[in-house]
């Protein structure tokens, strides 16, 4: 490989449905803590999503990933009023753009037992149909013990892991105790900022999101788990997330090096091993952590996924980016009217 080529980058924790949130009307009042951010922003937004909005937010999110050399997305989806079929819509959208995706539907008890059952069923339906996925769950703070057990059981039945938010905020600080009987090495634990014990699984570190929600620093360098980088829905520019991860790491330890954060970025390929065979030709050389930690704006010129050129001269080959952005804007307007 030349110095300008890397394998595909992986976003280890994404919410493609949040692509239409940017510019949304302000919440009824300013959220003053993490749980209010959920209640006043995200839980109003996800409740208003329908399948067409989900399709175009996923198209836009996948396009933005491809345009930044990210060839695989590990997604975590919620749309409590459009559950059935939602994971297939996301998988189809990513396929249309040419980006790999691992889907999960966020099971939660915040819409009662029926909502939890339908979430479980969507994970089950998608996996049964041969979809690439994990079993999704919101976070212990919105899951009963019985639902948590059902989530873990469904994942065991399908021989896949669980993708769940873990101790993102002190409000979810008992997640470690609640998950200890269930967690396995195949699980994907998003955040782990306030995790009070060792749990098996891969930790997805989302430094920009953690700062945005003022939940604290996860200190991933101290975790015994494999660590990958995610964006938590703030795009899929993984070189950018690497830079933020390095800056945050360095802020906490002046002896830390970019290689540590680069290792987290590379570890993402353990979640989607085929991304290792994808090829990204960048506009910069060498693609070395010490260069990239201090070089913003590096972008891909060409991207090959599974041998097919899906980005040439910086432009996607399978889809029209102008059309996707125009349709996504229309769907965003429709979504915001429901808020
Ligand atoms: Zn998340």
The CATH architecture classification is Alpha-Beta Barrel
Instruction: State the distance separating the first and last CA atoms.
Output: 49 Å
The total beta strand count reads 13
Number of helices: 11
User: Which compounds are bound in this model?
Assistant: zinc ion
Helix content: 25-40%
Low-confidence stretches: none
How many structural domains? 1
Assign the CATH topology. TIM Barrel
Mean pLDDT: 97
* CATH evolutionary superfamily: Metal-dependent hydrolases
What is the strand arrangement across the widest sheet? 1-10-11-12-13
Approximate strand percentage: 15-25%
Provide the CATH top-level class: Alpha Beta
Basic shape: globular
Structural class: alpha/beta
Task: Summarize the main sheet.
Answer: 5 strands, antiparallel
Radius of gyration: 19 Å
Protein architecture, described:
With 339 residues, this protein is of the alpha/beta class. It has a single domain, classed as Alpha-Beta Barrel (TIM Barrel), CATH 3.20.20.140. It contains 11 helices and 13 strands. The strands form 3 sheets. Strands 1-10-11-12-13 form a 5-stranded antiparallel beta sheet, with no helix packed on it. A 5-stranded parallel beta sheet has the order 5-6-7-8-9. It has a 3-stranded parallel beta sheet with strand order 2-3-4, with helices on one face. The longest helix has 17 residues, at 112-128. The mean pLDDT is 97. The site of zinc ion has 6 residues, from loops. Residues 13, 15, 76, 165, 190, 232 line the site of zinc ion (ZN).
